[in-house]
Structure formats: C-alpha cells, structure tokens
Automatic annotation (TrEMBL):
<dbReference type="InterPro" id="IPR001226">
    <property type="entry name" value="Flavodoxin_CS"/>
</dbReference>
<dbReference type="GO" id="GO:0009055">
    <property type="term" value="F:electron transfer activity"/>
</dbReference>
<feature type="domain" description="Flavodoxin-like">
    <location>
        <begin position="7"/>
        <end position="178"/>
    </location>
</feature>
<dbReference type="InterPro" id="IPR029039">
    <property type="entry name" value="Flavoprotein-like_sf"/>
</dbReference>
<dbReference type="InterPro" id="IPR026816">
    <property type="entry name" value="Flavodoxin_dom"/>
</dbReference>
<protein>
    <submittedName>
        <fullName>Flavodoxin</fullName>
    </submittedName>
</protein>
<dbReference type="Pfam" id="PF12724">
    <property type="entry name" value="Flavodoxin_5"/>
</dbReference>
<dbReference type="InterPro" id="IPR008254">
    <property type="entry name" value="Flavodoxin/NO_synth"/>
</dbReference>
<dbReference type="GO" id="GO:0010181">
    <property type="term" value="F:FMN binding"/>
</dbReference>
Length: 189
C-alpha cells in the first residue's frame, strides 16, 4: 500500500494572485501523486506533520507580507526538519529596460534573509497580476518609471515547470520507513 507524501503549501496574498499561484502548484503536486494541503499563512498549521513545505508570499516594498514572515518565525524549528521550497509573486516580472533587468537579478534583502534562515531547496520569483487600481499613486509612478507594465504577468508554464521540479525532488514515502519505525518502537519496549 502506497501512502502519498504529505506536502503543505502555505501562502500570503493581498489581492489573490499569490493564492492562485499556490493553488496551481498544489494541483500540479496532486497530479504527481502527493497528498497536498493548502492554507493561507494566517491559518496554516504547524508544518511538522508534513514531509515538505512550499511557502510563498506576495512582495510589497521588497519584503514578504507580514503573515508569511510571521509563519516562518513561528514555525522555524519545524521548518528546519522538512524539505522547503519558497516563492514570491510580485511586479518585478513586469519591469523592462535596465532597471527591470537589475531588479529581476537581485533578491530583495528581506527575502534573502528569510531564505538564509529557512535554507530552501530553491527560491523562485514569479510575476503576478499587476492591476493599476491596486496601486497607490506613488506606486504607479515608481512602477512606470521602472518600465513596468500592467496585466496578468503570471507565467503559468514556468510555474508549472517549477512545480514539476519540486515533485521530482520531494522524497517519496517508502514502506521500508514504516517497517524501520515499527522495529525501533519494538526495541524501545
């Protein structure tokens, strides 16, 4: 009997775009035979009962949203003992020109600090749904000055490819592990 490996997908979103990406990744992992649960960071369980964690957040002013940062801080001990992948969703993918190329090549300091604390297998940054109406006047000016554009900048092919990479990397449950655990428990008795 095969028991699927349990994967937890946790995300923080402002306008729903990151949630869409998280659910898409979860669907791809389910297709790969994994048992996947998806939660917003504010309501997500302790990741300790899962074999893997995919953690993502929208990016605001170069940082993850507070709910995602708080989830990492509140669960850092459990996170250290499982396989982790991290992703961000933001406006950077919509930037063009020299500023856009530079922004795409650099991981913002706050996000790099989180990655250093978690040590994920991989970190990816994806474009989001960039709506003019969701930005303040100041944000719109900065976005346009950096060569930004509006619209759905999510690259579903790239997101799906990354989910496939995760599926190919997450350790699969092995019946031998259960046998070994039962033997260890019997030796203790």
């Amino acid at each position: 009997m095969d028991i699927p490996t349990r994967v937890l997908v946790v995300y923080a979103t402002e306008n729903g775009s990151t949630g869409d990406v998280a659910h898409y990744i979860a669907d791809k992992l389910r297709t790969g035979g994994f048992d996947v649960d998806v939660f917003r960071a504010s309501t997500a369980p302790d990741p300790g009962s899962y074999e893997a964690l995919v953690l993502g957040s929208a990016v605001r002013d170069g940082a993850w949203l507070p709910a995602a940062r708080n989830y990492v801080r509140g669960n850092k001990e459990a996170i250290r003992h499982i396989d982790v992948w991290m992703f961000s969703v933001g406006t950077t993918a919509g930037l063009r020109g020299p500023l856009g190329r530079r922004a795409k090549a650099v991981v913002p300091r706050d996000i790099a600090t989180l990655c250093a604390a978690v040590l994920p297998h991989d970190y990816r940054s994806f474009g989001g749904l960039v709506e003019r109406s969701a930005m303040t006047f100041k944000e719109r000016i900065a976005h346009l000055a950096a060569g930004g554009r509006y619209g759905d900048l999510r690259d579903w092919l790239a997101i799906g490819g990354w989910a496939t990479e995760i599926a190919n990397t997450v350790p699969r449950w092995q019946p031998f592990d259960v046998v070994r655990q039962r033997r260890s428990a019997a030796e203790v008795e």
